[in-house]
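Ticket #4471: structure export looks truncated?
Reporter: QA, pipeline team
Priority: medium

Steps to reproduce: submit the single chain below to the structure queue and open the exported record.
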Amino acid sequence: MLRARSQSSLYEQEAKFVQDRITGVEKHFAELCTTFAAFTRKAARLRDKNDELAKVIQTYADSEIINRSLSAGLVNFSATLSVIGDYRDAEVQRLDAKIIVPLSQYATICKHARDDVKNTFAARDRELTRRRHLDKVRERNPRNRQMISQAESELTKASIEVSRVVKGLEEQIDSFERRKLHDLKSILLDFVTIELSFHTKALELLTKAYQDIAIIDEIKDIEVK
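Actual output as written to the record:
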């Protein structure tokens, strides 16, 4: 009896440990998802302001009929900003697909993992119920071998079920941990890659934007009558 109770307690401790692991992953992944989503919204707003700035500069260029080099410089500058805006849009789309979507899926993944833990607790409870039933039968009907044998058989089945469920839980949590590690590593690497890709291209385009403005000929434009 003591050994059986110890085994049941061991199952409960293991299930509790797994449950705490799942809760931790769910909490941290939810926080990551919320923060990355806010980051992406900020990037989207910056993209929109970038497009607005490009339009304002283009409008100014179109209205400038005296300072020709200024007008040409603004046209080129506006076009370069528009291209940067396209890359910002690609950045936002990739952040949503590669970062936000995978992180948001962990609410469902953790729910399914928690259901597996609940099944373990339920199997453990059924085993305890069968064990208490067997104890009562032995106490009240110590000479009724048929009732005792039936209660022992039911307990054996419940114990086998607990072992099966616990083994399945161990496999599930191993799979859960491996997936968590792989997904988090992939998500963070994707984030760095997305940002590197954007900023590398942005640096190239901003260099061109600098040149677009630098070539404006102040002296020539001021001489135009």
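Status: closed, not a bug. The export was complete when the record was re-opened. Leaving a note from the reviewer for reference: The two ends are 106 Å apart (CA to CA).
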